[in-house]
Specification:
By secondary structure, this protein is mainly β. It contains four helices and 14 strands. A hairpin with a 3-residue loop joins strand 1 and strand 2. It has two domains: 97 residues, Pseudouridine synthase (2-Layer Sandwich), CATH 3.30.2350; 120 residues, Pseudouridine synthase. Strands 1, 2, 5, 6, 7, 11, 12, 13 and 14 form a nine-stranded mixed sheet that branches. The protein has a three-stranded antiparallel sheet with strand order 9-8-10, with helices on one face. A two-stranded antiparallel ribbon has the order 3-4. The mean pLDDT is 91. The longest helix is centred in the middle third of the chain and has 12 residues. The radius of gyration is 19 Å and the shape is globular.
Length: 248
């Protein structure tokens, strides 16, 4: 169920659940945010830019109605949609100029040493897996600037069953502020400093998940942008219940 967190005549902010893709990938038929947008706001169908994929020699046009940015399939939280072309271009310009402020919450493996930090590592393609990106030596293709700031909210341990013999496994709860918007940026950067996001099947497939966490522990908590009236709007997504337990 997709909830609306903010709406005016031009812009929507929704609360995207984990486990839902933003737009179709041409391979699966699962419902997406794009499907929801077209169903509930038919006039958004032709807003923005569509993409064309080729699957087994067949070209498939992917509708991306009003989608100016995206969240990964297993990431939850606040996301902006443009209801018309003017709003789309207006928001797109803010993203390109890094005027939009985003805050994420994440749980990562291990205890980070510093209370605050900045990860400034360019991101390219992984040399081993076409689905992944990399910010470490050996990354291929164009290396794009990527900057991520973080703050430690809490360090904690979670008791685990065998083979950990009841010992507490270390985790860190973070607030994260991406200054750029690269694909998988937070996941890639946390992996690069050896503290990958927990329950991330792509970048941390063998990780131990804290008790009560059964999804990738990454949540887009807030976004701050300017609407077409020039007003600064900040929209927040409520923390998922599994994050609330950790935050106590």
């Amino acid at each position: 169920m997709i909830k609306i967190l903010y709406e005016d005549t031009n812009i929507l902010a929704i609360d995207k659940p984990a486990g839902i893709s933003v737009h179709p990938d041409g391979r699966t038929k699962e419902k997406t945010v794009a499907d929801w947008a077209i169903k509930n706001y038919p006039k958004m169908k032709n807003v923005g830019e569509n993409e064309t994929y080729e699957n087994k020699g067949i070209k498939i046009e992917i509708k991306k109605p009003g989608i100016v940015h995206r969240l990964d399939h297993d990431t939850s939280g606040v996301m902006l949609l443009a209801k018309n072309e003017k709003a789309y271009q207006f928001l797109k310009s803010q993203f390109q100029n890094r005027e939009i402020k985003k805050t994420y919450h994440a749980i990562v493996s291990g205890w980070l040493k510093d209370e605050r930090g900045i990860i400034n590592k360019p991101i390219g393609r992984s040399p081993k897996d076409f689905r992944r990106y990399s910010a470490t030596r050996g990354a291929r293709g164009e290396m794009r600037e990527a900057i991520t700031q973080y703050k430690v909210l809490k360090r904690f341990t979670s008791l685990q069953p065998s083979p950990y013999k009841g010992e507490g496994v270390k985790f860190t709860y973070l607030e994260i502020y991406p200054k750029t918007g690269r694909t998988h940026q937070i996941r890639v950067h946390m992996k690069a400093i050896d503290h990958p996001v927990v329950c991330d099947s792509l970048y941390n497939p063998n990780s131990v998940c804290p008790k009560g966490i059964k999804r990738m522990a990454l949540h887009a908590k807030s976004i701050e942008f300017k609407n077409l009236k020039g007003e600064i709007i900040k929209v927040e997504s409520p923390l998922p219940s599994c994050f609330k337990k950790v935050a106590k």
